[in-house]
Specification:
With about 190 residues, the protein is of the alpha+beta class. It has four helices and nine strands, in the order H-H-E-E-E-E-H-E-E-H-E-E-E.
């Protein structure tokens, strides 16, 4: 029996057609999520030494000073990427950290694009932003939504402020951050 016939029979036998539609939509949504996860896992396997050199700089006003966040992939060895994060306030470096990133968590152009494409399914809304790097489609999310993502976005939620705009950018995948009412905006980036 064809799938269409099965669906028709199910509709005909259910008293509540809305329930049937909801069941159908849940099935379609689950298939989409499984497909996106499969693509995510498949693409992350290709992230390796070709991502070394990817970088991003985000900056803006913060408490009367200029806050600058720089993140870059420095080296790759034995399936682990070394990510360096530098935070400067008023021109002085206040934090420099190196983090080991598992190969499956390395942000690639494909995974950054998928996160923007999947915006609604992760609790966000699409917005076009006019940035210094050009007009870009982004995904606006409350930072609480990021805790559900199986990705590096949820790494330091307390540093991301109230709202974050995900974009097709390297390392952090962030276009803009609203932090204490101030906007930190991407200034430059480099995909290797």
């Amino acid at each position: 029996m064809k799938n269409e016939q099965k669906v028709y029979n199910l509709l005909a036998n259910l008293e509540d057609r809305e329930t049937c539609l909801n069941i159908f939509l849940i099935g379609v949504t689950m298939k989409f999520i499984y497909l996106m996860l499969a693509l995510f896992i498949a693409n992350s396997g290709f992230a390796s030494t070709d991502r070394v050199g990817d970088s991003i700089t985000i900056e803006g006003p913060f408490q009367g000073n200029r806050l600058k966040l720089e993140a870059s992939y420095k080296s790759f060895s034995n399936g682990v990427m070394n990510q360096e994060d530098i935070t400067s306030l008023g021109g002085s470096v206040i934090s420099r950290e190196s983090t080991a990133i598992a190969s499956e968590d390395i942000l690639t152009p494909e995974t950054a694009g998928m996160m923007v494409a999947m915006c609604a399914s992760i609790g966000g809304t699409h917005e076009y932003l006019n940035l210094t790097v050009g007009t870009t489609l982004t995904c606006r999310l409350n930072t609480q939504s990021l805790s559900n993502l199986p990705y590096v976005y949820s790494k330091n939620l307390e540093l991301l402020g109230d709202v974050v705009w995900l974009g097709p950018f390297p390392v952090l995948g962030i276009a803009q951050i609203q932090l204490s009412g101030e906007l930190l905006v991407i200034q430059n980036y480099r995909w290797n």
